[in-house]
Design goal:
single chain; 406 residues; alpha/beta; Rossmann fold; 6-stranded parallel beta sheet; 5-stranded parallel beta sheet
Length: 406
């Protein structure tokens, strides 16, 4: 096969697609990964053919990080021209050979490229977004709804995409020459098929989803070959009992100093050691108290199996890494789908109730202690999740789609 994989966004959006590309390559196929150009070195390190896409929106996101609401609103006015340039880069992909397109819906152009090429299109979803179910509400819905409204709540995904439909329609007609047959993303995904890239242990398919929509398992990168931790991190881990891990990934706090002070005091109350990952700046410690090591980040596949409890934001990438590591979790969700995953982890018995609302040192310390008691359940679930091969399952489904088209 010659599959074209298209994704945009942060590393959390790109790395699963890179894992799939690696698996396809190892299985004897010839994948091309199209992603923001800043990820070219990462793809090259894994021997994956790469097509660079405009990454101005990532740069814009970096520039306004932590600058407040006014900066975010000002930046929003620059998004549409950036989107046009991103779609222009995607249009250039039609000059290359491909027999299947696997796309992240954030790309907006993926299914239209597949139509132009005359090949199957499969949406690769890292969280449930476009297939309605009555079993649970849309994970990105910001409020709780009665169960009777679960299915209707899934319309929110279409609302998120709606502001850009005119831009996509114009691009489709002008750059691709497809002047008829435009449909919204949700309709295209239902018609073309979907790969749900999370563990069925975390969220099994509801009864009203078709069999081909059942989760494949996580698309996971192998542990980094030859990665050597900084000496101070290795020494810290060796010098005592497994520490806590606290990191909020790409989430941004409006008051990182206060959040950091709360976290550090909660760690002190537990009497435990901790590794704090500053990530995108949600945590901003001014110093390192005794028993605390501050890092920017480290590969979760390497670090999390070496800690006792993970405290994080509930992003699906961190959720998956902690599940595979078999460690209990404390989730302080910030936005989007994070509260949904926090509730799922609590339901599975590997995390206490999500720490929502006003965060206090006492509440966080109590959640950490409650999580520690869940270590046996987390370990047992970790064994099951680690045994899955989501990449292999996805490759089988891609091959079936390719064969059906032929």
């Amino acid at each position: 096969m010659r599959p074209l994989l298209i994704t945009v966004g942060s590393r959390g959006d790109v790395q699963p697609y890179l894992a799939l590309a690696r698996g396809l390559l190892a299985a004897g196929h010839r994948p091309v990964l199209a992603a923001p150009r800043r990820f070219a070195p990462l793809a090259a390190a894994h021997g994956v053919e790469f097509a660079p896409l405009n990454d101005e929106m990532l740069a814009l996101q970096d520039s306004v990080r932590g600058q407040g609401v006014r900066a975010a609103i000002t930046a929003a006015g620059a998004v549409r021209p950036m989107l046009r340039r991103l779609l222009g880069d995607q249009a250039a992909l039609t000059r290359s050979q491909a027999d299947t397109v696997i796309y992240h819906p954030k790309s907006l152009g993926g299914p239209h490229l597949a139509e132009k090429l005359g090949v199957p299109a499969l949406a690769g979803l890292l969280l449930p977004l476009y297939l309605p179910t009555s079993a649970f509400p849309s994970p990105i819905l910001p409020v709780r709804v009665p169960r009777a409204l679960n299915r209707a709540s899934w319309r929110v995904s279409s609302a998120v995409e709606a502001p850009y439909r005119g831009t996509v329609r114009d691009w489709r007609a002008g750059a691709l020459g497809l002047r008829e047959g435009f449909r919204p993303m949700a309709d295209l995904i239902k018609a073309g098929g979907v790969l749900h890239a999370w563990s069925p242990q975390l969220l099994p398919a509801p009864a009203d989803w078709p069999a081909q929509a059942h989760p494949t398992g996580f698309w996971t990168m192998p542990a980094p070959d030859g990665w050597t931790p900084p000496e101070r991190l290795a020494r810290f881990l060796e010098d005592g009992a497994p520490p806590l891990y606290v990191g909020f990934g790409s989430s941004v706090s409006g008051d990182p100093e206060t959040l950091t002070a709360t976290v550090l005091e909660a760690v002190r109350l537990t009497g435990r050691r901790a590794v704090l990952a500053t990530g995108w700046g949600a945590l901003r410690p001014g110093s390192e108290p005794d028993g605390v090591l501050v890092i920017e980040d480290a590969p979760h596949g390497w670090l999390l199996p070496r800690v006792a409890v993970t405290v994080h934001h509930g992003g699906i990438g961190t959720v998956g890494a902690a599940l595979r590591a078999g460690v209990p979790q404390v989730v302080r969700p910030f936005l989007g789908d994070q509260p949904f995953w926090a509730e799922r982890l609590h339901h599975l018995g590997v995390a206490p109730a999500p720490v929502t609302g006003r965060l206090t040192t006492e509440r966080l310390a109590a959640a950490i202690e409650a999580a520690s008691a869940l270590a046996p359940a987390a370990g047992a679930l970790g064994t099951q999740v680690s045994a899955e091969d989501g990449v292999a399952t996805a490759i089988t489904r891609i091959a079936c789609a390719d064969t059906a088209q032929a």
